[in-house]
Amino acid sequence: MQSRMHQEKTWILFLPLTREDSGIYRCVIKNINSCHRIHVNLTVIKKYPCGVSRSSLLNLSNEYQQILYLRKDYSLICFLNFPESYVLDSIKWFKDCKEIKGERFITWETKLLVINASEEDRGNYACEARLNHTVRQITISNSISVNTTERYEYGGKVPKITYPKNNSIQVRLGSTLIVDCNITDSKENTNPRSWKVNNTLVEDYYSESKRVREGVEKWISSQQYKFYTVNITFLEVKKEDYGHPFVCHAGVSAAYIILEPPAPDFQAYFIGGFLALAGVAVSVILIYNIFKIDIVLWYRSAFPSAGTVQDRKVYDAYVLYPKLPRESRSHDMDMLVLKILPDVLERQCGYKLFILGRDDFPGQAVANVIDENIKLCRRLIMIVGPESLGFGLLKNMSEEQIALSNALIQDGMKVILIELEKIEDYTDMPESIKYIKQKHGTIQWSGNVTEESQSAKTKFWKKVRYHMPPKTYPPSSPAQLLQHTSCDDTTDKQEVSMGFVTQ
Fold first, then answer.
1. Is residue 236 within 8 Å of residue 173, measured between CB atoms?
2. CB atoms within 10 A of CB 285
3. Which DSSP string do the residues of 1-41 spell out, in sequence order?
4. pLDDT tens digits, the chain, 503 residues: what are they?
5. What is the CA angle 180-183-187, rounded to 5?
6. Which of 23, 297, 323, 392 could form a disulfide with 388 if both were Cys (CB 3.0 to 4.6 A apart)?
7. How many Cα neighbours within 13 Å face the side chain of 215?
8. Largest CA distance in the chain
9. Cα–Cα distance, 140 to 92 (Å, whole number)
């Protein structure tokens, strides 16, 4: 049903019409000051137009009856009225199912001019046109019952206005509008033709502003009649133009148009609102991606979690790093692991780390210590350097294998991979480390490893803290919440005033 029925402004179109469309329809037109309801009783009558051969007569109704005046030139009108977005072309005329051709017949837009009408011209006429809308083309037709008479209504003196038809036009405030007045008059008539408003010529009424003007009159001629067109142009439609009739006069004949504001375009409002919301959403996503780390850290410090940790973990991270022989041991690696890492993450931020060689007891089996303590950690911090390519991590296979087995296979622990120096080629690294780099990426140490105190608010440590678990404080010890305030981002000079769920 929806594919056949279309609404456009105050029109409802049935493409095509069926018997089931009979019924009562209600049109509701609302504006700021009024609401009009119009009921239309539609009755669908079956017609039997000519077939492809056009050999049979049309079963015409009398809904459109027109008259030709004998021995006069007169035009028949094909009433095919559609909204402006529908274009009519390829108009053809038929009489008694045969296409009309000959010098006495002139087709002009939706009119058929019959020259020197005779009794033979009475009968059943049909007009057919192609209706174009977007990508769709439909063939439409209408029927006319034509009689002839000796009486000539014009007497040569009464013109006929075919448009406007005392109708209203919807037009936007501030837009430009041109309306044609189409007049059919006898050739010998000298009737004046003009547009008026408030019984005053528009040229006089708008003599100062020249905002509304009457156009130059145009016409075409036949043997008996002239077809005139005189337009009225609104350079800018203003609110004062709404509701007033603008009248086209042709002798004693007159017809008017009334300008109305268009009905609200809810579709435009909906699209505009959707685009605005989409723009806000994209902006929020971009801001979050740029300041994601700062936002998450700010959220953690502004809304610290309270309560006892329920995952039964003891340590926040297990630190895995290359164990080199004493004579080959890297001073920078030892400084980072044994001095700087504990100073920042433990002392400033309150995290608890497990470092093999520092937190285990002498005499314990190394494999058991690694296996037991890795299960008590929430993160695995893995530090690699240039020496790792040679034999660093590979020399201590037990710690690496046990730690990675628990982290990647058994517990699905998140791994934080730190490069002490930029490593361009991971070809000689174990497959497990290649996998970690591909999945989690790396954090590269920046700066020199010195005895100077490091700040948890530098870019490198913010990245590390972002990947660390959120710090949870027991609610029964509020004093402990104040012990690590130096790691909070609420004291930063550049605060991010947004809250997002942390990872």
1. no
2. 10
3. -TTTEEEETTEEEESS--GGG-EEEEEEEE-SS-EEEEEEE
4. 457 788 887 788 887 788 888 998 888 877 777 777 777 888 888 766 564 334 343 444 444 678 887 887 778 888 777 787 788 888 899 998 899 988 889 887 778 888 888 999 999 998 888 888 776 788 888 888 888 887 544 445 678 999 998 999 999 999 999 999 999 988 777 778 999 998 889 988 998 889 999 998 888 887 778 899 999 999 999 999 998 899 999 887 889 999 999 887 677 778 888 899 999 999 888 888 888 888 888 888 888 765 445 678 889 999 988 876 665 556 778 888 888 889 889 988 889 999 988 888 777 787 888 888 888 888 899 888 776 554 444 445 566 777 777 666 666 688 899 888 888 777 777 777 888 888 878 888 876 666 566 788 888 888 999 999 887 655 444 444 444 445 665 444 433 333 333 33
5. 140
6. 392
7. 18
8. 132
9. 11
Return the amino acid letter for 321: Y
Task: Tell me the torsion sign for CA atoms 371, 372, 376, 377.
Answer: negative
C-alpha distances out from residue 217 to 79, 179, 198, 233, 305, Å: 25, 13, 21, 13, 83
Beta strand segments in 340-496, E:
353-355, 377-384, 414-419, 443-444, 472-473
Identified catalytic residue from 399, 424, 431, 452:
399
Contact at 8 Å (CB) between 348 and 456?
yes
Would you say 64 and 143 are in contact if contact means Cβ atoms under 8 Å apart? yes
- The domains located in the chain, with CATH, are 1-46 (no CATH), 48-153 (2.60.40.10), 160-264 (2.60.40.10), 291-491 (3.40.50.10140)
| Closest listed residue to residue 189, CA positions, set 164, 212, 231, 160 | 160
User: Which residues of 157-293 form beta strands (DSSP E)?
Assistant: 160-163, 167-170, 177-186, 193-197, 200-201, 212-214, 218-221, 225-234, 245-250, 253-260
Say how many C-beta atoms besides its own lie within 10 A of residue 384's C-beta.
25
Report the first-to-last Cα separation within the chain, whole angstroms: 51
- Structure tokens, 210: 């020249």
Alpha carbon dihedral 315, 320, 325, 327, in 10-degree steps, equals -90
Q: Which CB contacts under 8 angstroms, 24+ apart, belong to 339-345?
A: 339/451, 340/449, 340/454, 341/381, 343/453, 343/454, 344/454, 344/455, 344/456, 344/461, 345/316, 345/317, 345/456, 345/464, 345/465, 345/468
Residue 258: strand pairing partners: 168, 245
